[in-house]
């Protein structure tokens, strides 16, 4: 194959940010309509090019410690052998995932890049145009965890591979289930004040876990009920999100990673029906039915559900 082009949607974890780190802990995630685009073009050597801002052109990735090279090295040594028999220029366009100042929008860009690398290598190595999503998930989870020092639930990988609304069950061998139609409108994503590294939050959780184990187990049981209830109706989803917010605040306080709205944003509490931190920390917030005039429009993004996961594209890179 001389040219392979496909795209991968972003993802958001709506609830279960710590429960999915536990065996059989449940979370609820969605794929969104902001996509990253990948093109593998036959060449005489393996090279990787990246575009992270709409105003940029593609640039060659030369730093061998870059995440892309970590993924490629692991996959070529452990999953897809004899890649030296092939060679491609790989173009990775994640400009939909970054503001023009380079700040991440919070759509799961690292997981999406990992999926893109795995999917391309899978198609090339197997000389196929069939996207075996289950196999790609398995390879991607293994390589992604390795590149992240063994950390990662895999919810973001599963959600972007399969698309739609995903009920995710955490653990060493995680599982996911694509739910039916869920009404998801009037939701927005809002940026917090500063970036929070997910790996740091997970480390803090693991450090405090044993000392608050009873509390964690109670939270997990309640979160499971919330996730299972959320897909029943729009009102059930909102009710579950409200309670999940309370659980997230309590866990964040217990481990020292705040999920609270910064005090400088307090004036927004009366300007929407719900504000809930997403993920581990308070880097991004889910906002439901906001008074748009009260919000900074450069930092609030409409969320549109994407029902399709990986899909082939005409060459966009």
TrEMBL record:
Organism whose genome encodes this protein: Borreliella burgdorferi 118a
Record Gene3D superfamilies: 3.30.230.10
Keyword Cell division: no
Residue intervals of the GHMP kinase N-terminal domain: 103-164
GO terms of molecular function: ATP binding; kinase activity
Keyword Thylakoid found: no
SUPFAM superfamilies in alphabetical order: Ribosomal protein S5 domain 2-like (SSF54211)
Name of the protein in its database record: Putative phosphomevalonate kinase
UniProt keyword terms in alphabetical order: Kinase, Transferase
